[in-house]
Write a structure and sequence with these properties.
By secondary structure, this protein is an alpha+beta fold. Helices cover 32% and strands 22% of the residues. The protein has one domain. It contains seven helices and ten strands. Strand 9 and strand 10 (247-249) form a beta hairpin.
Length: 281
């Protein structure tokens, strides 16, 4: 899979500008830059691992939408989803960027081999969203892990409820990025008298383990007609947010092969669900 390594590589480059002072950051909680990167890369891995999806894209049957608002028909909840695969509600507009064209503005850094794989894919076009087939939501927990647990759970839980409240057949996907660094500079903290910004200190691995435990409590479903995510994963990175390269963490407590939250398993599960649920699309 390309996603986790490419995400860490892409996050290494400071690309988020602070509105407060114009400083550049690798991660900023008030920006959706990290979510865009994560969801784009999940979609890339899905395209590479789902032959039926590639076929539907090449036949012009499936499109994508960005920041699509889904509304729960029963509860009237609404939520903007980062990225969706969909049936177009109208013809795609040539002025809208294609999926591959978003790699540069999203700050995606691919190796030559990964870029070659992207170039071989059929062109996935953007269109007004009709019925949703796959909906992606990505969240990050980069600092103050214990404090962030309830918010993280609630935001993700509302995602699958809203997605399936709108379209039960849709594949609801959740991805959580957790920071395993021992320290982190929060963009919201003011510099001290010397001009340096203070670090938040993380008691690892305990705080990360507690976040993963909370994510593991999110409901998952194995069939339509029930509540829960259809696919869910967690990725660990080491990000100090001080300009040092961001690295992917693969050793425990990062999910391992066979674990419910393992990234590769999530991609393969989405591909399998798509191939069975939308075989007659």
């Amino acid at each position: 899979m390309i996603g986790p390594e490419a995400f860490a590589r892409s996050l290494s480059i400071p690309s988020v500008k602070s509105k407060a002072d114009g400083s550049m950051w690798q991660y900023h909680s008030r920006s959706d830059d990290h979510s865009k990167k994560a969801c784009w890369l999940v979609m890339l891995d899905l395209l590479l691992n789902c032959p039926l999806l590639r076929k539907h894209v090449s036949e012009g049957k499936v499109y994508f939408g960005i920041n699509h608002e889904m509304r729960d028909f029963q509860q009237n909840r609404k939520k903007d989803l980062d990225l969706v695969l969909c049936v177009g509600a109208a013809s795609p507009k040539s002025s809208l960027p294609t999926f591959d064209a978003l790699a540069e503005p999203y700050g995606i850094v691919l190796t030559p081999e990964e870029q070659a794989q992207l170039n071989e894919l059929p062109s996935l076009r953007q269109a007004p969203v009709g019925s949703v087939l796959v909906a992606l939501e990505a969240k990050a927990c980069m600092t103050e892990h214990v404090k962030a647990r309830p918010r993280l759970f609630d935001e993700l839980n509302s995602s699958h409820l809203t997605i399936h409240g709108a379209t039960d057949e849709a594949i609801a996907v959740g991805l959580v990025v957790v920071n395993f660094a021992d320290s982190f500079i929060s963009p919201g903290k003011a510099p001290d008298a010397s001009g340096a910004r203070p670090f938040n200190i993380h008691r690892q691995p305990g705080v990360t383990e507690r976040v993963l435990e909370k994510v593991g409590e999110l409901p998952r479903r194995s069939a339509t007609g029930r509540e829960g995510f259809d696919a869910l994963a967690a990725v660990l990175v080491d990000c100090r947010n001080d300009g040092h390269p961001v690295s992917l963490v693969t050793a425990p407590p990062a999910p391992q092969p066979g674990d419910n939250l393992y990234y590769d398993s999530m991609i393969l599960r989405i591909a399998q669900l798509y191939a069975t649920r939308f075989v007659h699309h």
